[in-house]
Design goal:
alpha+beta, Pnp Oxidase, Chain A, 7-stranded antiparallel β-sheet, 6 helices
């Protein structure tokens, strides 16, 4: 049976981690955080909105020997679905069929989600457990993104135990190609409108200068 945590952040701050924090001088600050309530344990409206915007997530699991493995999952915005204040679900699309994550979750349900928004330099860490659901057509249908060209093989349901956000330090600012293309298209439309206005004003100026003769 899993040991109950005194604080939600104890899911990551083990006694060994806390000992390192003491040695490195950061334990006092984190002890204060614990007394103020530590990390969130449910999905807040702000986190739900952030999740809904993501097109990418990293899912970590470990086998029974503790060997970690990280897989990337992606899809259109909204492919990650908040099902309730403790559950995130998504369709697991067919990939290279190694099934390392599925095997790991069978032996060890503990899992971790890492979400990063490069444009706004924000990252979210989520600890919890995950399980695969196979053969539930209604669930798969509810999780499959509309008109997305992929085949859902099973559903993955992630139960949130704790989450925290990181500061933006050292996050490089990057933008989605679609967002850059949209911004460039808007710039081009603006330039075209300016050029059209310049040509219109030149036509008016030319008409006025050539429309009369000196007395």
């Amino acid at each position: 049976m899993a040991q109950a945590h005194a604080f939600s952040s104890d899911i990551a701050f083990t006694p060994t981690v806390k000992a390192v924090q003491v040695r490195k001088g950061s334990r006092g600050g984190y002890a204060g955080m614990e007394q103020r309530g530590a990390w969130q344990t449910t999905i807040t409206p702000d986190l739900s909105a952030f999740i809904a915007e993501q097109t990418s997530v990293f899912l970590a699991a470990a086998n029974r020997d503790g060997q970690p493995y990280i897989q990337h999952r992606g899809g259109p915005a909204g492919f990650l679905r908040v099902l309730d204040d403790k559950t995130i679900g998504f369709a697991d699309f067919t990939g290279n069929r190694q099934y390392i994550t599925l095997g790991n979750l069978t032996d060890n349900p503990k899992a971790y989600l890492f979400l990063i928004d490069y444009a706004h330099r924000r990252r979210i860490k989520i600890w919890g457990t995950a399980r695969a659901v196979e053969g539930d057509e209604a669930l798969m249908s509810s999780l499959m993104p509309k008109d997305y060209k992929a085949r859902g093989e099973q559903a993955l349901l992630f139960t949130v135990e704790a989450w925290d956000s990181n500061c933006p330090q050292h996050i490089p600012q990057r933008f989605e190609a679609a967002d850059v293309a949209a911004a460039l298209a808007e710039r081009d439309r603006y330039i075209a409108a300016l050029e059209a206005e310049i040509e219109r004003l030149r036509g008016i100026s030319g008409h006025n200068s050539g429309g009369s003769s000196p007395a």
